[in-house]
Amino acid sequence: MAGVLPEEIILQALERCLQLSQTIVPRLAHEGTSEVPREVLERYTALMQDLHREKRRESILSDESWEWIWDVKEKSNYLQLYGRLAWINYNLFDLL
Predict the structure, then answer these.
(1) Which residues on adjacent β-strands are paired with residue 77?
(2) How far apart are CA 96 and CA 90, in angstroms?
(3) How many domains is the chain built from?
């Protein structure tokens, strides 16, 4: 049954988003359209898998507006990944 995602889970996810963003932001200007390294994509994928598991606790994660975010593209560039992280950050803050 869906309910409320614990604040601790949200804050951990936000921390991981911010850490990934700190890796990506310095590269946006000069490498924005370059493919992100495998390690960065793996970190993003792990974050998405962890959030996806929380769908049972938080009904908003099952909302149609989240559907596109669960599809992790294997060949994402820095701009695409940063845009996804910004969207996730915005929506996670809304859950607090």
Answers:
(1) 35
(2) 11
(3) 1
Q: Is 1 contained in some domain?
A: no
Q: pLDDT (tens digit, 9 = 90+) per residue, 23-60?
A: 999 999 999 999 999 999 999 999 999 998 888 777 77
The parent domain of residue 47 ranges over 7-95
Q: Which residue has the higher pLDDT, 16 or 4?
A: 16
Measured between alpha carbons, how far is 72 from 56 in angstroms, rounded to an integer? Answer: 20
In a domain? residue 45: yes
In this structure, is residue 2 part of a structural domain? no
Q: Where are the alpha helices (DSSP H) in the chain?
A: 7-24, 28-31, 38-53, 78-95
Identify which of 61, 71, 46, 73 has the alpha carbon closest to the alpha carbon of residue 10. Answer: 61
